[in-house]
Design goal:
The protein has 141 residues and is α/β, with parallel strands linked by helices. It has three helices and four strands; from the N terminus they run H-E-E-H-E-H-E. It has a domain of 74 residues: Nucleotidyltransferase, domain 5 (2-Layer Sandwich), CATH 3.30.420.270. Strands 2-1-3-4 form a four-stranded mixed β-sheet, with helices on one face. Strand 1 and strand 2 form a beta hairpin.
């Protein structure tokens, strides 16, 4: 026996709870990894009007020198770990052996004495860097 006129109406509903869970997991992952993306040390660069270098295929080798004259290198095992002069030379030589055309830059705090910056450049040249550039930031207008 069938009843005429009685139809069941089916309404499709989307369960959004799994989407919220995935979103929260991604949010936590981004919150944890975002601070790790900031490489190097806090260095107050001198301001100068200079042309910006064309983007390279590989990230340049950057030797950072903070205001107390301590060396840090972005290609080191731990970029936030201070390095001595011998370690800077060893890491630079190893990186440049693999890629001799890699750009080499010095990021030195503007309060450093000129001689400390020159010492950093000499370390890089002894390790095999043919050209060493200096990082600056554009002056605010």
């Amino acid at each position: 026996m069938t009843r005429r006129g009685s139809r069941r109406r089916v309404v499709a509903q989307i369960n959004i709870v799994p989407y919220i869970d995935v979103m929260l997991v991604l949010l936590v992952i981004f919150m944890v990894t975002a601070p790790l993306l900031n490489q190097g040390v806090e260095v107050e660069l001198p301001q100068a009007e200079a042309e910006t270098l064309a983007p390279a295929e590989q990230r340049p080798l950057v030797l950072s020198v903070d205001r107390s004259g301590v060396y840090f290198m972005n290609y080191a095992e731990d970029p936030a770990q201070p390095l001595d002069a011998e370690s800077v030379t060893a890491v630079t030589a190893a990186v440049l052996r693999g890629n001799p055309k890699l750009s080499v830059l010095v990021r030195a705090d503007k309060s450093l004495k000129y001689g400390v910056v020159i010492d950093a450049m000499v370390l890089l040249q002894r390790a095999g860097a043919e050209k060493v550039g200096l990082s600056t930031e554009s002056p605010e207008r």
